[in-house]
């Protein structure tokens, strides 16, 4: 192996919400909505010198068989609002908001992100997500106006328009010079964008924050999503948390960067991972088993099978084998779930049957195996070593940790694994910069903004 | 004992006078920082004020109410008010935080979740001031619709403005209704965490709001559980009959802009007339505040001289939709208690220059009112509704019998 310097392991944390992997039944599980829960997780991540905290977004509660889905945690604050509040109780931690490019408009999103960047002193990030479904659209003026095929072209143009808005204030446009009486330069904030999705012009209300442009995050896995990330993102949330899949994805995405005149360091790849720790390997495995049982209750196992099968399976015994009935090709029992969109239904069912048969698993056992297996299980030393090997082996640049309880689910990781990563020399002992771009080792945005001339 | 006055302060940039940023104690280079706003709001909280409001618009500031301008000698550039209020929530503990938002271009669903999230982050201190777009040019920022263009003649008359923008006011009413329904779309005890049945939620306690108006529809429920106050405080600034109707039908609190005690009476009458034709679905009577721009100094004559100096810098005498007061804290206390007698619950003061006129309110006016037993000596509640003696409303969807 060549003697290259050790890569740093970039760590981010997600405030877990909506997935069945959140163990709300744990006696230590706290509120999913109280600000204290968010503040606790943010402070813990900052104590662990993480790069950033990430919040997902909800625009429509999921429904199962025509009713609001009631088995998983649901209900969360609007992400930019709570991140703005968190900017007041943290000093270095990056604050990443998921904001949909379909049910928003560039002017408003750009000003809100610029605002968070100001309020936090340069710690804002934007996870650009797309959607197109009419189900979500029912909560918005335009309804389901966008074809699925157009969701990325709108997202790309949305992001480019936002950048034009941030760049509409040039360095030195804010003068605030009482002696001369000039507050802003003439024409500051003027913009005009004409494109397929947006035809907008005028004056932008909010000069960009300390980072110029917030950090851009992308999460799509399709070829289109990867190309979007290679062209435009600073961070990609990957779903490839196994070493082989991680390496393949890493190679693929990093190779796309040259086309856009970017170097491999310009885009950080961090898969979303989970973990269970124990004092011994056996204890960790035992705890992992308990967590998985809590994550996949009999009711949840049945619900997920119904979602995949596309039909009502009431009465099916979750502790028995998978249902023998065929899936309904166009059946929709669950709305607002995106979990099974990537693979076709028939293909998913075939795969599930294959695994269940091969390993002799019950319905609940199979669902547990497929949806509730933590990425890292072991002693703190084992987990630190495995994470480090994953990163040094170019399967990723770091991780987004998704604890399975709030607000304390990250405490143990920060107390026990982070010191070991620091000992290995792959995680900072203290922040060396002030902005999220600094933490991620990213270049300043293209047009850094000078606030006080 | 006479009821005590309620006092709010309206914060905007470096104060309401367009040349205020040029004062020696102004901090114009900091208007986009959290520290600047934290200092102001903490000062207001030290003065035990009921709440602060934050101005906003989906446009760059302009000296004209109806079109953009190219002036470079006034404060330009501002932060999103909801996010600003959220950042101040953990830094304060009692004072209400009331951001202004646009309701013409912003999605009602996003407004509902944003204000609800502010209420969660502040543990029950959120309010909201919905505002329509009065500048047609702003619509080009979104490219999705057009709105009426006001003329120079229109903007001299509040009734003309309101008539021209009636459609937008009607839409604002729909937005407020949709938002209120979304706030109620989760019953307070919807989260049950029932391990026996594996259910986190009681789905029967979440409600589709199915709002359908002339301008939009929203299905619901909200993504955000019911805010701590149940319904955050909805406030409306109103200058004419149409917005009086909006306030009567949809708001918890209205800001009027009277120019004298007699005018206060006249406006209260007009508000009552509008209320008669706008049924109020809310159980509590509308709270009524009057807005005043204030320049305050202890030494007689000094505030007026200060305003004149700023007027000279700006090139024109400052005028406002609200009455502009210059004088001493004692004189202002006299005026407030006089006008209050016409039937007001309180006042929203717009400091002419920051921090000067805010500090004069908290350290001059407040003690003066207290000497007259007309203002609180300690916060008596920890929610904004509580400070205004408004109960936490029942949920419109709760049957209470489940």
From TrEMBL, chain A:
Q: Which GO terms describe its molecular function?
A: monooxygenase activity; oxidoreductase activity, acting on paired donors, with incorporation or reduction of molecular oxygen
Q: Which residues bind FMN?
A: 98, 152, 222
Q: Which domain of life is it from?
A: Bacteria
Q: Hey, what's the signal peptide range on this chain?
A: none
Record bears the keyword DNA repair: no
Pfam families, alphabetized: Bac_luciferase
Q: InterPro entries given for it?
A: Diverse_substr_monoxygenases (IPR051260), Luciferase-like_dom (IPR011251), Luciferase-like_sf (IPR036661), NTA_MOA (IPR016215)
Instruction: Tell me yes or no: is Endoplasmic reticulum among this UniProt entry's keywords.
Output: no
| UniProtKB keywords | Flavoprotein, FMN, Monooxygenase, Oxidoreductase
Q: Residue limits of the Luciferase-like domain?
A: 26-392
Which NCBIfam families does this chain map to?
A: FMN_nitrolo (TIGR03860)
Give the record's family classification. Answer: Belongs to the NtaA/SnaA/DszA monooxygenase family.
Name listed for the protein in its UniProt record: Nitrilotriacetate monooxygenase component A
Which source organism?
Kitasatospora phosalacinea
TrEMBL record, chain B:
Q: Which residues form a coiled coil?
A: none
What's a Gene Ontology MF term here?
A: monooxygenase activity
- Look up the domain of life of the source: Bacteria
Quote the protein name from its UniProt record. FMNH2-utilizing oxygenase
Residue numbers binding FMN: 56, 100
Which keywords, in A-to-Z order, does the entry hold? Flavoprotein, FMN, Monooxygenase, Oxidoreductase
Q: Does Nuclease show up as a keyword for this record?
A: no
* Organism field: Kitasatospora phosalacinea
Oxidoreductase recorded as keyword: yes
